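Why does residue order matter? Because the sequence determines the fold. Keep that principle in mind as you read this record.
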Amino acid sequence: MARQNIAILGLGLIGGSLAFRLRDKGYRIIGFDVTEERMQTAFHLGAIDAVAESAAAAAEGCSFIFIATPVGAIVTTVQEISSYVNPGAIVTDVGSVKRPVVEGIAAMDPPFAFIGGHPMAGSERGGILAADSNLFENAVYVLTPTTATLLERERLHSLSNLLEKDLGSNVMIMEPGMHDEVVAAVSHLPHVAAAALVNALGQTAEKVPMALALAAGGFRDTTRVASGLPELWADICLHNRAPVLRSIAYLQDELETVQEALLSQDEASLREFFAEARTLRSQVPVAQRGLIPPSFELIVPVPDMPGAISAVTSLLASVDLNLKDIAIVRQREGEVGALSISLADGRSSDRALRLLQAEGYRAYRR
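Structure:
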């Protein structure tokens, strides 16, 4: 039985992760990217079965077409492939902004079904080398269909089925404008705020150079997403401009509340501010992946002696625990240093913590 063809246009983090996962599930993946090197890398890594000469060539004969380009290129990509898409095919995108994309493609009145999509998963790292076939496991995957015709419902069911069964995602249906308001608050604003925090630290560091060296622990966790690709986030913010501006205004209101309380030395208002944030944060789901990538990090104090690091990594490898990242976060000559160990998911983190503590390490979660 011939394998079903799926085209993936754009082979960065999201497109590459889709390619790896869907190829593992038995689909034949046709890949295209405007960067020849990235396309060849995806092929040699085994993410795709074939390299296409153009987006149109990739789309021809495919049942599903995922557009994983930057937001600003999605509508023009649909225009480019429009004449080559089978009428029965489903075209979808993975952009984190939906309203301008959905409206732009609806105005084209394409002869095929287009269903806007956005996997609520990501990483502060980008590119095909950061792709992860498990990226979409237990992640919310938003779809933004525009009509409720029988044909659209059938196509919507087909796409939802692939996302839930093959990717392991949880599909949520939303209106495009509502989606953009929500992601402005839970994803786009946090990226802006994280970058602003780092840049504010930079101003302090101009006066006190040691500031950057002291910015570890909580500061690094809070600003992790500021490591995202600048061109990607500029593109996203510009295409979701109005909702992002509204979210920035809300943040400014909150900061002014704190500023006024500090100026007037109003302790009661400060306590209320922090208490409200604590209560609201307790309502945020912890078992579900979201737009801000989760951190499954353990801190493991180790003695400053030869073999200390390999002893920890060998112990974890002995039970098939794979480390995503490892770093020395504190090191003092002749004393105790600490390893920062990042694992793939919460279950792996739990296993590693139990094992390390059972072996006498004073390991703890960051």
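The two ends are 49 Å apart (CA to CA).
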